[in-house]
Design brief:
- By secondary structure, the protein is an alpha+beta fold.
- It has one domain (2-156): Aminopeptidase.
- Helices cover 32% and strands 35% of the residues.
- It has helices spanning 11-21, 27-43, 92-106, 123-131; strands spanning 2-4, 50-56, 59-68, 75-83, 111-117, 135-145, 148-156.
- The protein has a seven-stranded mixed sheet with strand order 1-2-3-4-5-7-6, sandwiched between helices.
- Strand 3 (59-68) and strand 4 form a beta hairpin.
- Helix 1 runs antiparallel to helix 2 (27-43).
- The radius of gyration is 15 Å and the shape is globular.
């Protein structure tokens, strides 16, 4: 397994395929994930969004997207962390998030933030974040829609 940070044109289809495979995201959310790749390709080094891809036998099987939060110093949002459904439950998400944290540190990041939904299908996601020492910072009631709260997690990052 290896990681790469450079975005290539094929990542448009990789991100769409990986994100759709999970059955966690609405079509419009998948479109947003793909649009970030398109923006990164267009903007190159000036892109606001960074990517980390994980590959196995030259197949892209997961990714994260992250970026510095505007008007902050050293605070980063992890916008997406997604592993292809056929590879879920094999520890790849953990490796991917740990390496994303390392990449954020290299960029000068001190704290990473993640968010998720309170829907029942995201309970394993919350446990995943908590197992990786992310702390629940806030719950914003009815954020996404009625009875679907936004849960925000954070972690102070440390160089390894």
């Amino acid at each position: 397994m290896n990681f790469r940070t450079n975005v290539i044109p094929e990542d448009i289809k990789h991100v769409r395929s990986i994100t759709e495979s999970t059955k966690f995201f609405y079509d419009h959310e998948v479109d947003v994930a793909v649009s970030l790749v398109e923006e990164a390709l267009k903007d190159g080094e000036e892109a606001l969004y960074h990517f980390l891809f994980v590959e196995d036998n030259n197949k892209t099987i997961g990714y994260t997207s992250y970026g510095e939060i505007p008007c902050t110093k050293g605070r980063y949002d992890v916008y997406w962390i997604v592993v292809s459904d056929e590879y879920r439950g094999k520890g790849i998400g953990k490796l991917l998030l740990k390496e994303t944290e390392n990449q954020i540190i290299i960029l000068g990041g001190e704290i990473a933030y993640l968010e998720t939904s309170s829907q029942e299908k995201y309970i394993p996601t919350c446990k995943f974040y908590e197992n990786l020492l992310y702390h629940k910072e806030a719950v914003i009631k009815d954020f996404y829609t009625n009875d679907d709260d936004k849960i925000i997690y954070s972690k102070r990052l440390q160089k390894i």
